[in-house]
Write a structure and sequence with these properties.
CATH class: Alpha Beta
Strand content: 15-25%
Mean pLDDT: 98
Shape: globular
Helix content: 40-55%
Largest sheet: 8 strands, parallel, barrel
Order of helices and strands: EHHHEHHEHHEHHEHEHHEHEEEH
Distance between the termini: 6 Å
Number of strands: 10
Number of domains: 1
Strand order of the largest sheet: 1-2-3-4-5-6-7-8
CATH architecture: Alpha-Beta Barrel
Bound molecules: beta-D-glucopyranose
CATH topology: TIM Barrel
Radius of gyration: 20 Å
Number of helices: 14
CATH superfamily: Glycosidases
């Protein structure tokens, strides 16, 4: 039998554009209207209206925290014009969570930008981060009394690579130089945002907040032993898993480490090109593992290994995302259970994990993959907007309630 601490944070996550619907002022919406993406987000899960109903489900499922993002393009739909109705909306969201005994964990950037910010050049321009920082300051001043946990930026490297290297997400660029610039700009933005947030709490004589990013970690494994594969493994682990976090640690701007973990990346490099070293994975299904519906390898042990490798940083760790898209709900439960067990194993070896957040509370808009992948603890019928709680969610609720697995 396994026991989690009583104050352990247990919940699920969403992000604004993926669930709210009608985010008409952001760059994703603009790209969707141009038809350059597989599907348009449209009204998504209508969570902007139905949030309270969705939080009632989270409460019923014994969640004691909830991670969500505030949509910058709603708060500042035009440059310098802040929408008071949107600000009041998110205040209600936070209060609704609190009234249910659910701790809000607030993300400030989760892949979408106001269209005006993107038109000015977006994250590729260093000087534009002042606009993001102004938004951060505004938001944190509004909600500091109600929020303890902040995530400035979700998966900086996933954003910079998908938007500026792989050409998959707006603005659909393919430039290593721009990717590096955006990544650096995001790191600088976090560092500045960290100080802004802390100053607001200090000026208001409030208890110190907990500020971090949500870093996407992958369990890199070598397919076949070769020099190329070893070099690629080393490069990827350093570059994708450690480099960004270590920059922020060096500046002492992480109060905890937020980790998003999904699975394994099986390194299989065929030539010495940089692209291959950084991106190529095994295409032959060597060392086969169970997969999610997008074909990603399920590898719970990877979470354990990564958590242990983060022990040296001596900071609390929050699993800010872990989840599976599948139509097989038994597999979803196996996935969750096995990851909880691996996380617990790491905790027994003195890794200080303070929370586990499943991705996602409800099925949602999976970016360039559209609505087909089903990550939710709760099934969403997009035609009727009906929510149906999955069995895996009930099983997880039991663990959240008893803190025993
Ligand atoms: C992101 C989410 C996304 C999920 C599943 C994470 O990379 O933060 O927005 O839906 O993984 O792909």
């Amino acid at each position: 039998m396994i026991n989690f601490p009583h104050d352990f944070l247990c919940g699920a996550a969403t992000s604004a554009h993926q669930v709210e619907g009608d985010n008409i002022h952001n760059d994703w919406w603009a790209a969707e209207q141009k038809g350059v993406l597989k599907e348009a987000s449209g009204c998504a899960c209508r969570h902007y209206e139905l949030y309270s109903q969705d939080f009632a489900i989270a409460q019923e499922l014994s969640h004691n925290c909830h991670r969500f993002s505030i949509e910058w393009s709603r708060v500042e739909p035009k440059e310098g014009i802040f929408d008071t109705a949107a600000i009041e909306h998110y205040r209600k969201v936070i209060k609704d969570l609190r009234s249910r005994g659910i701790e809000p964990i607030v993300t400030l950037f989760h892949f979408t930008n106001p269209a005006w910010f993107a038109q000015k050049g977006g994250w590729v321009k260093f000087k534009l981060k002042k606009y993001f920082l102004r938004f951060v300051e505004k938001i944190v001043k509004e909600y500091a009394h109600e929020v303890k946990f902040w995530i400035t930026i979700n998966e900086p490297l996933v954003y910079s690579s998908h938007s500026y290297l792989l050409g998959a997400w707006p603005p659909k660029k393919c430039s290593l130089f721009q990717t590096a610039k955006v990544t650096l700009n995001l790191a600088q933005a976090h560092i500045k945002a960290y100080h802004i947030i802390h100053k607001i709490y200090q000026d208001g004589s409030l208890a110190k907040p907990y500020v971090s990013i949500a870093a996407n970690l992958q369990a890199f494994e070598i397919c076949q032993k070769s020099v190329k594969n070893r070099v690629a493994f080393y490069l990827r682990h350093k570059l994708y898993n450690l480099y960004f976090i270590e920059q922020l640690l060096h500046k002492r701007t992480l109060d905890y480490i937020g980790i998003n973990y999904y699975g394994r990346n099986l390194v299989h490099v065929e030539d010495w090109s940089l692209r291959s070293l950084l991106l190529a994975t095994c295409k032959y299904n060597h060392h086969p593992l169970r997969k999610n519906s997008l074909g990603w390898d399920i590898y719970p042990e990877g979470l354990y290994k990564l958590l242990l490798s983060f022990k040296k940083y001596h900071l609390p760790i929050m699993i800010t995302e872990n989840g599976i898209c599948t139509h097989d709900d038994d597999l979803r439960w196996d996935y969750i259970r096995e990851h909880l067990l691996q996380m617990h194993k790491a905790m027994q070896e003195e890794v200080k994990v303070i929370g586990y957040i499943y991705w996602s509370l409800i099925d949602n808009f999976e970016w360039d993959k559209g609505f087909t992948p089903r990550f939710g603890l709760v099934d969403v019928d997009y035609r009727s907007q009906k929510r149906i709680i999955r069995q895996s969610a009930r099983k997880l609720a039991e663990v959240f309630k008893t803190k025993i697995i």
